[in-house]
């Protein structure tokens, strides 16, 4: 439900210009330095990009899901690193508070996240617990009016930059699965909280991940999200439902950019005396990519509208993440193929995109986890 078409159009136009004029020209610098320049971060703050999805009463723009995916289509037309910096504040870093936080927690943290004063991070994955998230071992033991957290989180996006973490930890060691897990807000600088060294990744230079280590880290008991033990896994799953839809939208935008680049190259590049775009085998790759992007875009918009209509979109979000991330991988592969040898050298951005988009099929739930969620929901619904 788009609330105000005119305001949305202004936002989309501003963003599209910002991507074209500021972010695309900075892509190589970010890839080489592994850093987003400070002036660009400041501009992202000024445009309000850190608070896109945070409700207006807490200082954000309060976009609907449909508005959010339209914005995601635009911002994904450049290096995913830019999106990643604002992604946790709008998504997995803040959503736990938004969906399940107490009023006090929301009032205290959300305005700081919306302005970009604080960067938020989501700490679920561990060295021994990835796809099987409910098996996590990080513990939180109650001690008076505090919890004492011990354990290690792995591959945590924006951890090196984060001022605040949503941390899933086991408060009840007797319950091995999901029911023993609670979600906490932990601030940077809390004694016993350490950030590991930044991971060296295949792609997405400029977006940082690292371990987050808790050693007898004492967190005030009031920092348990929603004030309730044992519901942290469900909070994490609700956060991921929305996150998966957002990533699917990002896959659409990235695929559109790669196809635009491949099309331009195919029109310019001459072989056998004419542009390679005139050859039907090249045309097949262009056409298949176009059709698949259109399908993914339509799915994402449909699921977003359903979420705005308050429907449970757990299945649809997984369908979108599964299809759009795999589609994005296929488009990346064809775009490299269309570029030929030029697609394998870093002078052309497709070489970088090919590596960058590989992550989409893995994080916020692998393709195989999306298959599992979809099939389980189908079977459960059929048995009801
Ligand atoms: N919304 C709300 N609640 C949900 C939910 C959702 N989308 N999905 C599951 N739950 C609830 C279930 O209803 C269940 O509650 P009850 O015990 O009260 O019935 C509880 O959470 C446990 O769910 P389930 O039994 O399905 O958990 P499993 O351990 O079997 O596994 C999967 C669930 C595999 C789907 C989950 O671990 C997962 O998504 N793994 C991937 C993690 C991931 O995406 N990591 C990426 C890194 S984070 S960026």
Features of this protein?
3 domains; Butyryl-CoA Dehydrogenase, subunit A, domain 3; four-stranded antiparallel β-sheet; Butyryl-CoA Dehydrogenase, subunit A, domain 2; three-stranded mixed β-sheet; 51% helix; alpha+beta; 9 strands; 384 residues; 11 helices; binds coenzyme a persulfide; Butyryl-Coa Dehydrogenase, subunit A, domain 1
Q: What is the second-level CATH architecture of the largest domain?
A: Up-down Bundle
Structural class: alpha+beta
Count of individual domains? 3
Q: Which word captures the global form?
A: globular
Run of helices and strands: HHHHHHEEEEEEEHEEHHHH
For the sheet with most strands, the description reads: 4 strands, antiparallel
**Which cofactor or ligand species appear?**
coenzyme a persulfide
CATH fold-type name of the largest domain: Butyryl-CoA Dehydrogenase, subunit A, domain 3
Beta-strand percent range: 5-15%
Strand order of the largest sheet: 2-3-7-6
Q: Classify the helix fraction into a percent range.
A: 40-55%
The CATH class of the largest domain turns out to be Mainly Alpha
Q: What is the residue-averaged pLDDT?
A: 96
- Counting DSSP E segments of at least 2 residues, the number of strands comes to 9
Describe the fold and architecture.
The chain has 3 domains: 5-115, Butyryl-Coa Dehydrogenase, subunit A, domain 1 (Orthogonal Bundle), CATH 1.10.540.10; 120-228, Butyryl-CoA Dehydrogenase, subunit A, domain 2 (Beta Barrel); 239-383, Butyryl-CoA Dehydrogenase, subunit A, domain 3 (Up-down Bundle). The protein has helices at residues 5-33, 38-47, 65-75, 80-90, 95-100, 103-115, 232-268, 280-308, 314-339, 349-356, 367-383; strands at 120-123, 139-143, 146-157, 164-170, 181-187, 193-195, 209-220, 270-271, 274-275. It has a 4-stranded antiparallel beta sheet with strand order 2-3-7-6, with no helix packed on it. The protein has a 3-stranded mixed beta sheet with strand order 1-4-5. With 384 residues, the chain is an alpha+beta fold. Helix 1 (5-33) packs parallel to helix 3.
């Amino acid at each position: 439900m788009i609330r105000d078409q005119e305001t949305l159009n202004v936002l989309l136009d501003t963003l599209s210009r910002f991507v074209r004029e500021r972010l695309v020209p900075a892509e190589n610098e970010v890839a080489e330095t592994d850093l987003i320049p400070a002036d660009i971060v400041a501009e992202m703050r000024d445009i309000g990009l850190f608070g896109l999805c945070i409700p207006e009463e807490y200082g954000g723009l309060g976009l609907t899901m449909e508005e959010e995916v339209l914005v995601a289509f635009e911002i994904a037309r450049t290096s995913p690193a830019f999106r990643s910096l604002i992604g946790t504040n709008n998504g997995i870093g803040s959503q736990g508070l938004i969906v399940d936080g107490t009023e006090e927690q929301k009032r205290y943290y959300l305005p700081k996240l919306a302005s970009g004063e604080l960067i938020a991070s989501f700490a679920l994955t561990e060295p021994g617990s990835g796809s099987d998230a409910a098996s996590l071992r990080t513990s939180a033991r109650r001690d008076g009016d505090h919890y004492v957290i011990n354990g290690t989180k792995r591959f945590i996006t924006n951890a090196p930059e984060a001022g605040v973490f949503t941390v899933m930890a086991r408060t009840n060691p007797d319950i091995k699965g999901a029911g023993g897990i609670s979600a906490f807000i932990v601030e940077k600088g809390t004694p016993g909280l350490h950030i590991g060294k930044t991971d060296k990744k295949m792609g997405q230079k400029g977006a940082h991940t690292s371990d987050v280590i808790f050693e007898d880290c004492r967190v005030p008991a009031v920092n348990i999200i929603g004030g309730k033990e044992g519901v942290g896994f469900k909070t994490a799953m609700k956060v991921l439902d929305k996150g998966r839809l957002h990533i699917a939208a990002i896959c659409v935008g990235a695929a559109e950019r790669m196809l635009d680049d491949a099309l331009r190259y195919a029109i310019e590049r001459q072989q056998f005396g004419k542009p390679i775009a005139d050859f039907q085998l090249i045309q097949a790759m262009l056409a298949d990519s176009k059709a698949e992007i259109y399908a993914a875009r339509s799915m994402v918009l449909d699921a977003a509208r359903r979420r705005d209509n308050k429907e449970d979109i757990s299945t649809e979000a997984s369908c979108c993440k599964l299809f759009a991330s795999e589609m994005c991988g296929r488009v990346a592969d064809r775009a490299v193929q269309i570029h030929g040898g030029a697609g394998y050298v870093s002078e052309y951005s497709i070489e970088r995109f090919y590596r960058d988009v590989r992550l989409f099929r893995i994080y916020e739930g692998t393709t195989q986890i999306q298959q599992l969620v979809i099939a389980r929901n189908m079977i459960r619904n059929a048995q009801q």
